[in-house]
Amino acid sequence: MWYKTPHTAPHLGRSSFQVYLHPIYRKQPTQLQLQPIFRSSNANFGHPIRQCRSIGNCIHPKAARFTSAAETRIVSNTRNSEIPTLSSSINRLRPFWVQSRSLTVVPKMSSNLYTDETPEAIKSSKGLHLITQSTPNGQKVQILLEELKAVYGTKWGTSIINIGTNEQKKDWFLKLNPNGRIPVIIDNDKSFSVMETSAELLYLVDREDKDHHFDFADPLEKSQLLQWLYFWHGSGAPYQGQVNHFFKFAPAPPDQLQYAQTRFKNETLRVFGVIEIHLSGKYTGQPREYLAGNGSGKYSIADIGTWPWIKGWNFSGAISEEDMEAFPHLLKWIDRIAERPAVKLGTGDNYNAAKRPELYVGEKR
User: Fold this and answer.
1) What phi and psi values does residue 327 have, to the nearest 5 degrees?
2) Are 20 and 35 in contact (CB under 8 A)?
3) Model pTM score
């Protein structure tokens, strides 16, 4: 009898199976057990013994020693519907030398994340490692790591760079993040680096937050989390960042900056107004404490990804206390999150290079 394993891909329509005959069965045809091997040029599909990486690479290496052309036959153009599905007892169909043996492999994306110029503290790091500076973007990931530590005991290493020296534009950093921005998360267990703060927050909760303390198991609540996380990433931070630039750092006379200053200030206040409407429950009748979740919401990475920027609304000097009086629910939200112990740690001296010089890597001023 032919068997279709769970690894067979029904959407491929037709499949080819290779069957080998182990020598111990040559004289015992009535006891013959046929082991199907799914062969596909698609590397995402494999047979029960191990993953196929290319055509012709699907036979177990020990089986290959006993398999010859005379002992092997190919059944081609076999419709999946003609092959009965075997949903259990896959192990008994395997050759005896691989039965009850775990072949799980931890995937790795790259074998070499580092260059000769990568600072030794980063190159020799183990597990999770954060490269940061305590800016609003850096604080997003710093806060989440501190929150995960408080709940799960999560461990990681930290390196602090000075973005004022353009350390993040050097080749060793660009290999980790071609965009040349902090922060960067490195997962040395998988030889994998993560750029962009929203992606980093999502990566960390997927990796560490098994009980969904800072995200949601419910798909609708998770969707709401993503909506507000992306809203700030795409609509909030860029505008407020430009307010900071044109009011505080732009090297041009004020009269040449008036249009940019007015535009980005107004857009930032508009975005604050969107969040104020959401938190106030103006259109739902349900005031909220946090951005995502049923009822009044639950503290999550939607808040963590937004708060470090908004709490610095007065950094540029462009937005006044009078401007902020229009957003009472937003101001309460800022104060509510600021009281969390992990938030205080994530924005405090643990990430201050002057207080933690041993964490400093790269060029200093």
Assistant:
1) -130, 65
2) yes
3) 0.72
Residue 185: give the domain boundaries: 120-212+350-359
- The 10 Å Cβ neighbour count of residue 58 is 21
Q: Phi and psi at residue 38, in whole multiples of 5°?
A: -80, 125
Distance of CA 215 to the CA centre of its chain: 13
Instruction: Establish if 129 belongs to a structural domain.
Output: yes
Cα–Cα distance between 235 and 332 in angstroms, integer?
A: 21
Domain count, the chain: 3
Kindly state whether residue 192 falls inside one of the protein's structural domains: yes
Could you tell me if 235 and 332 lie in one domain? yes
204/242 same-domain check: no
Q: What is the pLDDT along the chain (365 residues), one digit of tens a residue?
A: 444 444 444 444 444 444 444 444 444 444 444 444 444 444 444 444 344 444 344 444 444 444 444 433 333 344 444 444 444 444 555 554 444 444 455 556 555 899 999 999 999 999 999 999 999 999 999 999 999 999 999 999 999 999 999 999 999 999 999 999 999 999 999 999 999 999 999 999 999 999 999 999 999 999 999 999 999 999 999 999 999 999 999 998 888 999 999 999 999 999 999 999 999 999 999 999 999 999 999 999 999 999 999 999 999 999 999 999 999 999 999 999 999 999 999 999 999 999 999 999 998 76
Amino acid, res. 234: G
224 Cβ contact partners less than 8 Å away, ≥ 6 residues apart = 216, 291, 292, 293, 302
Is residue 105 assigned to a domain?
A: no
Six-digit token pair at 71? 């002992």
